[in-house]
Amino acid sequence: MATDQREGLAVEDGAGRSKARAAPRSDPWREILATGRDDGRLVEASLSKQGQARLTPLPQELHPEALQALKRVGIEQLYSHQAQALTRAWEGPFIVTTGTASGKSLCFNLPTLEVLSRDPKARALYLYPTKALAQDQARMLGSFGMQRLRPAIYDGDTPRQARREIRRSCNVLLTNPDMLHVGILPNHEAWAELFSNLAVVVVDEAHVYRGVFGSHVGNVLRRLRRIANAYGTSPRFLLASATIANPVELAERLTGIEDFALIDQDGAPTPARQIAMWNPPLTDERSGARASALAEGAELLAKLVQSGARCICFTRSRRGVELLSKLARQLLEAEDPKLAQLIAPYRAGYTPQQRREIEARLVSGELRAVVSTDALELGIDIGELDAALVVTFPGTVASLRQMWGRAGRRGNGLAVYVAGEDALDQFFCRHPPEFLTRPVEAAILDHESQQIHLSHLLCAAYEGPLSSSDSEFLGPRWEAYAELLVGAGQLRKRDGRDAQTGARLTAGATLRPTTYVPRNHGAYPAAALSLRSASMDSFAIVDVEAGELLGSTEAARAHNTVHQGAIYLHLGRSYEVLELDLDRRQALVRAFDGDWYTQPKTETLTAIERLLDRRQALGVEVSFGNVSVTETVIAYQRKRLSDHAQIDLVTLDLPQTSFQTQALWFELDDSLLDPALDVEIPLDALLGALHATEHAQIAVLPLIAMCDRWDIGGLSTNMHPQTGRPTIFIYDGHPGGIGIARTAFQRFTELCDDAHRLISGCRCADGCPSCVQSPKCGNLNEPLSKLGARLLLERMLRQQQPQP
Q1: Which one, out of 266, 365, 411, 590, has a CA that is 20 to 30 A from the CA of 64?
Q2: What angle do helix axes 748-760 and 683-700 make, rounded to 10 degrees?
Q3: Model confidence pLDDT, tens digit, residues 267-289
């Protein structure tokens, strides 16, 4: 049985014979890998074996129109997980987590086709994290050729004149969480036809909804269920995700619904794939400096294009995309100028027309390679590719495997990871077998994170008065949060008094239920709430040269990120902050192309507000709870991009900022600091040891939780006033917390073990960016004691209880 590589669908020709698949090409990268093996840049290589498809016939009980639609696109059989999803859809919600190109879309499209075939009034809502994914799915739905299927995209690009017709006639609405939050839910009366007949809600690429964004989306989906219930519907939720460690937990946390079924037994064929880990060579062994990962990626990409391979190359920033594609073109121009024109960059910031043109050229084979941010990591159809390069670690193992899965769809592929000099990249290169087999991370979110939840309760009250019946959707603690909004003057409580006079009802009258309504009915709270920020309190970032609003940053982070003189990165572009206007709450910036970056110097204090949990582990007392973090940015350092050398230190005069969050902290007693244990940690080196330990733990925490080190803060002190002992704090960097510190508390032993291996495996003498130096350190990486941190972690790990 052949496979349609675009969607991973089993197909036959009209006579039931298998279509002939193009024979896999002999790999064009054998010589490239051999060169890397000889000069030491190839750290590890392995071969994943090809897997066979598990097929099942189309269920004949499907509605005839749905069967005809499938046959119209050549689908005569299903993969086993697609058939399982169809069966489960009639019983309850599910989340499917099969591999890239395994046909996950049909897992939710087929139940939707069936519902729409049997009920002409039924409606479906599809949520996608990007506009490009919605466009791709709309094309796929259109290919079924069903008269009853009327898909439409509703997002910020939808013309206003088309919106009324979409609300009236479409029965599959494709949108994104942002538009659902700000455009659809607050105006639900205009969408009465949708909500009165809403049968299916699809949430695709669910793994994207984690951290702050996921915590917001968890609230948006609860508001969606609440509004649907008000219109008399209870839609079935069907989720699809990349492989993650906790898919069912993620689905339940996102939707507030229990009893999700997990569909993770992949029935699609898997191509053979050569996997390679590539580490740029050292240029200075003492400092740990390495050759540029972008230059290495460009060299590999150019060689693959020369060999005839069709490639995709991922890197994290828009600037990196442009630079890497430029370097690769320059290398090719020296050999064959025509080949240089077959590489194109692809990133956010291009017009939709430009991006669609690049996608079409790649699918058709006109382009040989594309260099992209993670915009193409998700399930957009970009044709059959031979090789996928990932330059620097994308943040999670789950994302890396998604990116690798974009190539090899012709039965044979190459997946390369080019490491950067960051601590996580080098940690993986020092432990390659573990990296290649490491489990994917857990997606972390907390929809009840206080600032986020309060903001969405205000939005929900605007959509309809809050009452006791809302516990089903908003959770059992929503009323306590609502009382906080009453105290803040944002909600008004109606407790059964006469609405006009405030008098109590007379005896015998029916007491109305207590409700909460907005105090300012003219306000539109959703418009002021970004789903990408943990707080409604924010600073606008304004490009003074272009005269446009670039975005915003949380007030708690503004002094660190957009102080005067800061070099600020926005979607991969660099801007210099000309002024931070504290009164108008805006940062004025202009485009920047200089050869330096900035790092703020801060003074940080933590105060323990509430202890939530405590236990003994590794010879220390480990605690979890609520803390307040107070920061004062006192200066910033300018450093050269080329060698990270300090240019100067500029003082600043900014007020303190404070925010509440969640933290893990652990206290060291004298037994761990006793010089008789082994090598003494001198008192003057203790703070450096604590500081380096904190940095190492923050560096490896993303291995446990799906987060970035920029989502995490830390503080180490040799005497905290509340604990009276040397103490290390690791806290969520977002106001209110989103569950990262809680995960670190729960997996503290694993965190310490990874941190110890990060430090002990690095060959540098005194600490470098590959182990204990941090690009976000408020103390500018002073003091640091790599040796002290290694000894401290070794002593802690010796206290570990043996497993039975």
Answers
A1: 266
A2: 110
A3: 998 878 899 999 999 887 776 77
